[in-house]
Amino acid sequence: MDTLNRLYQLFIQRQDLLWNALWEHIQLSLISLLIAVFIAVPLGVFLSRQTRIAEFVIGITAVLQTIPSLALLGFMILFVGIGTTPAIIALTAYALLPILRNTYTGISEVDPAIREAARGMGMNSYRRLVKVELPIAMPTVMAGIRTSMVLIVGTATLAALIGAGGLGDLIMTGIQRANNEYILLGAIPAALLALFFDFILRFTENRSKGASFTPIVTVISLALLIVIIPPIVASQGGSDASTRLVVGGKEGAEPAIIGNMYKLLIEDQTDIQVTVQSGLGGTDFVYNALRGGDIDMYLEFSGTVVGDLLNIEDFSYDEREAYEQARDGIYEAEQLIFLEPMDYHNTYAIAVTSEFVEETGVETIADLDPYQDELSAGFTFEFIDRHDGYPGLIDKYGIEFSNVQSMEAALRSRALVSGDVQVIDAYSTDAYLVEYDLVVLEDNEQLFPPYQGAPLLREETLDEHPELEEILNQLAGIITEEEIQQMNYRVDYDDENPEDIAREFLEEKGLIQ
Amino acid sequence: MITFNNVSKEFVDGTKAVDNLNFTIEKGETFVVIGPSGCGKTTTMKMINRLIDPSEGSIHINDKSITEGDIHKLRWNIGYVLQQIALFPNMTVAENISVVPEMKKWSKDKITARVDELLGLVGLDGNTYRDRMPRELSGGQQQRVGVARALAANPDILLMDEPFSALDPISREQLQEDVQHLQQTIQKTIVFVTHDMDEALKLGDRICIMKDGKVIQVGTPKELMTTPSDPFVTQFIGNRQIKKMESPNMIVRDVMNQNVNLINHPTLSTKHVIHPNKTIEEAYQQLKEGSAPYLLVKDDEDVVGTISYEDLARTWMKERDA
Questions:
Q1: Which of A315, B22, B92, B250 is most exposed, with minimal Cβ within 10 Å?
Q2: ABC transporter domain spans which residues (chain B) (predicted)?
């Protein structure tokens, strides 16, 4: 009851957000479905005439379908960048198989006697297809389209990870903040949308009794209307010629807050317009987007640059040296500029509950040694993979937990609080550390390198706008760990707007008027 | 007139479906092709509308090779009735019948009129059935629509590939009779494939008996019975009477007494006059109702004979002995 109540409150407060996300979701889904229909139906018809290669081609689309959606989205960033385009490509790829297979099957399964009747009556190949085979296959084709539709509406929630928006934005926010109401606010409309589309398709199909083209034509024209009108309306508004920069950001509150600080500083002191595109999945997603030129800069951490992007194993533990190692290394490798870092560290940490500390009295990571056989750990994929992550823990501390579960960053704290795991990796500025009263164990053997945050920019961007260096370096050496943790908390738990928080902070420091 | 000249068909897998066919199908006749399954009868028929092309030899329709000219136009002028009926399930009865006229670009009005005419011809009420879907009809009704569809654009030739074998015995019998009557009205060249000898004897003007891809004998039902060319023919026909001579389909003409003195008959009421094409069953009923010793058989205005209980009794006794 409580959840429902809070969900209702959130719905009232965040209606604008919901309608916007819902609209994006509908557009994303319909565009993908339309493209899939336009590819798969003609291809299915073609294959029904070329049965020898049919199984092969259908096999290819089946392979597309087996690629995990997240992998496909991440992979696509390298080639087509971030935003709606890669999302539409990926969704289309998923939608192909059901439509293609059903079109092919529907046509192939037309009674051979009926085919022969059509031939014997002197219909040519095209007429046979349009008057007989396709209409008879139509219910099967429509069933394929319905399957794809539901598939797309569901998968489109993941598109939020590459900046395509949609209801996934709300779900991801909910996961980030361990906030069930946000998850439901995205998930319930997504489910209803799938049901609604299915109903529409069924309805048009039933209305046009028997086999005919009416349902598919109705649906396609409706979809086209929805897809085409908004861009036309939007283009009437006229476009602005001034330069635009895009600030990217990983998932979570902190990249959004700092990204908005970049935006506010730049817009305050130049004529450049800046868009913040945060929530772009993990390091790989946003780094690829930067290399591909979809975004111009994002907040990165020295430790991540050294350990993850450059794969250097013998990094320095001195924060200045580590920063310089990162700055020089990333410029050499990718011609990316790593500006001056802020004050706080957002380093990896090993966190446990305060109850656990009370029971066992552990203070440092090394203290976990006697308990390693009894403990389950919940680590992010990134942490399990990095030299300075779990492998380092085994090397340096000789600690190997009896059970290590890999999980999404946002889910770790919940797993810890619910008791599914007893140890997690955390980012030291994360708000949930405060919310759940978690204890960060001291890294007494210096496993984790320094993690100082600074803007990572494309060299071209800086060449074009050399003033950016000075503007962004205004953040160098400021923002303490306490300040950022506080700001993160306000976004994650008080549902405040990252941009407002960023502005408030910059005004307080006198960096903007 | 359809002529087969040295026609053979060998399929890609090497099986020879038909071997050196030579025969002519006359205009307006019902030509029945019969034989055991796998004898090549269907292949023979499908070569006429080029669903199958012969590997050797040639087929001419009215002295023009069927490979000359457009294949689709050829097929528009050859009606085709399938064993599986195969009405287009996505079209109404009327739309099914309109398929070929539409391709021939007939006007809408002409097509509508033609649909109703044909439905009447095959014994279906236009108002009731025009807009029904095929699945709403019984098998017999469906095949009536199948026949109407084949006749739609008024083709000269009608190919019927075991058209009634999928129907129940009652519908089959009915449709056979209807086709017989229909043929009297429309006078098409009908090529009729069947494996049922009773059907062949009943419908065929001439019958072509095939075995292993070869023609064994072509002839009228009577010729096949009286002068079979091969033991296979005798065996295939078995000890059947020609269906046309059998009661109750036997007609007055077959049993009437023609050697009567036609002059000294008193004037008889219509009760006592019968047409030679009536069945003997009907003659019996009329004799009973008219309480006369005989009926006068009149074809139009000409008196052609008489029929009495005696004639009927003789016929039935002959049949009992047979």
A1: B22
A2: 2-237
Q: Are A215 and A201 in contact (CB under 8 A)?
A: yes
B90–A132 C-beta distance less than 8 A? yes
Identify which of A122, A124, A132 has the shortest CB distance to residue B88: A132
Compute the distance between CA of residue A219 and CA of residue A197 in angstroms, rounded to an integer.
10
The answer to whether A83 and A162 are in contact (CB under 8 A) is: yes
Rounded CA-CA distance B256/A37 in Å is 73
CA–CA separation, B214 vs A392, rounded Å? 87
C-alpha distances out from residue A168 to A29, A186, B107, Å: 12, 6, 57
Among residues A299, A298, A295, A267, which one has the least CA distance to residue A479? Answer: A299
| B68-82 pLDDT, tens digit each | 989 999 999 999 999
How many residues are listed for chain A in this entry? 513
Of A113, A120, A136, Cβ closest to residue B90 = A136
Below-70 pLDDT ranges, chain B: 239-249, 260-269, 319-322
Question: What is the arithmetic mean of pLDDT over A390-406?
Answer: 88
Q: Are strands B189-194 and B30-34 parallel, antiparallel or unpaired?
A: parallel
- Cα A509 to Cα A247, A261, A477, A513, distances in angstroms: 22, 12, 13, 10
- Model ipTM over 0.90: no
Round to whole Å and give the CA distance between A21 and B232: 81
Residues near A284 by Cβ (< 8 Å), separated by ≥ 6?
A74
Q: Indicate which of B98, B99, B104 best probes the interface with A, i.e. most A CBs within 10 Å of its own CB.
A: B99
Rounded (to 5) percent helix, strand, coil in chain A: 65, 10, 25
d(CA A453, CA A463): 22
Structure-block tokens of residue A39: 């590819």
In whole angstroms, how large is the CA radius of gyration of chain B?
22
pLDDT tens per residue, range A185-224: 999 999 999 999 888 888 877 776 555 677 777 777 777 7
Q: Which residue has the tokens 């010629």?
A: A241
